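Field reference: "sequence" (input) and "structure" (output). Example, Putative restriction endonuclease domain-containing protein:
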Amino acid sequence: MGTDAIRTRPITSPPAPPDDPYFYGWRMVPRWDDRKRQTWEKVPLTPWDVLHPEEEDFIVTNDAHDRDIHYLKDVFEECVAGRSGVRVLCDHRVLWEVPALGAHGPDVVVFENLNKPWNARRGTFPVKEMGARPLVIVEVTSPSTRYIDLDDKIEDYYRAGVPLYVIADRRETYDGQAFIRLMAYRTTPEGYVRVPEDPNGVWIEALKVWVQADGDRIVCVGEHGNRIPDLRDQRDAERQRAESEKQRADTEQVARIAAEQKLKELEAELKRLRGDTN
């Protein structure tokens, strides 16, 4: 595909296990039989396909990963609200249009300098065609493909001209407790250099926001120290409060009905004792 031709060095993740060919995901590929009738074949993805996806690939992920990247997208979109020519993409195919560098599907990427409106129905974002310039990429690792984020993408994103690459590396302790370790790389003429670790997390100057790790979750903090809530966490909390309120109201209603019934029984018993037959 012209400038989408890619280098051939091997990548770091192992192949899918023999008993699970769809471990990384799958791609539906059109086939034609002898009578020119079209069918579809479900083709397993490889680590290479995960690194360089095609449109409509189904790549296996997990709920914790999805929750983090959609939180980041929501926060970043709020950070750039009102800024012209800026776009935040999540899990979207990006074609850099750089010689020998294939397309990628960053978890979250922010572009500026778009020279025309973006059609949100397009499956591939062509960087040069849009006149776009990347500001930052954040990848949240998954167990099966984390070494792609930690190795292959460091070289690729530098070549793509990404000035800041942030990795949220999800790990587990020996007793199964999950945690996130943050690391970041900034561009220099000689290549990426590792950003020194900061107890405040990773500062994204272009967005004026800190990205931090809080146990097994990613959190963002504004430049004035305000923690930015996860809208889904807020919705879940509101839903739980609503359910608790309904349960309390239901309990009170049951108690009220029981009390009214008990009062009727006591009044009936009192009438009986008085010999009141009315």
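The chain has two domains: 2-10+59-228, 231-278.
The chain has four helices and 15 strands.
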